[in-house]
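REQUEST ID: PR-0412
SUBMITTED BY: lab tech R.K.
PRIORITY: routine
TASK: structure prediction, single protein chain
INPUT:
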Amino acid sequence: MATVDDPTERVPWLKWIDRFSTLLAILGGIAIVGLMLNVALDVVGRFAFNRPLPGTLDLTQFAWMPALISLGLGYSLLRNEHIRVNLLTAPTGPRTQRVIEIVSMVFTLVTVAFFIWYGAEKAAEALNFGEKAVGTPWLEIWPFRWIVAVGMVGLLLQTLATLLRAITVENFVPADDDETTAVIEAEVTVFDELKDELVTTGNVEKR
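STATUS: complete
OUTPUT:
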């Protein structure tokens, strides 16, 4: 959601939620670097020395991927990078879109809260069981289940911040408006270039 007047100054702790989402995203970025190095070393070891890096597949599916995806969810919402389908909502006015934003954020809060409860329960079971990867006995899986739960908490907090902004901001400007403007400008540019090309081609043919 893009806003003209951000209520962060009136509600200072919203800034801390934004910072927490950014911190989680940084940790997710570190996980991406770890995944890249892990895969690169595995490829080099496999083809250069015929010795692949042990546990690469299990590390990818149980450690790197869950971390880099879940830790970036809150930051994606902060940057309005989640997928939005505005086919039905785009023609409506700011007041209606504000209501839609509030309802969708409330629904998201409930859904994410359920995921946190379910994920924390599974993480606790994995901790008590001492869950490990079958193919890689030294790889403990339970810490990464907790990482997923933490990422969902970050998404929950950022959803709450987005909801409060949608409620309290005076001039609500949906994020889709900026995207629509950009698309229109791009289309106008393409048509102008096509028109210039046709004019140039016509002049050449006349000659």
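NOTES: The beta strands are 2-3, 172-173.
REVIEWED BY: pending
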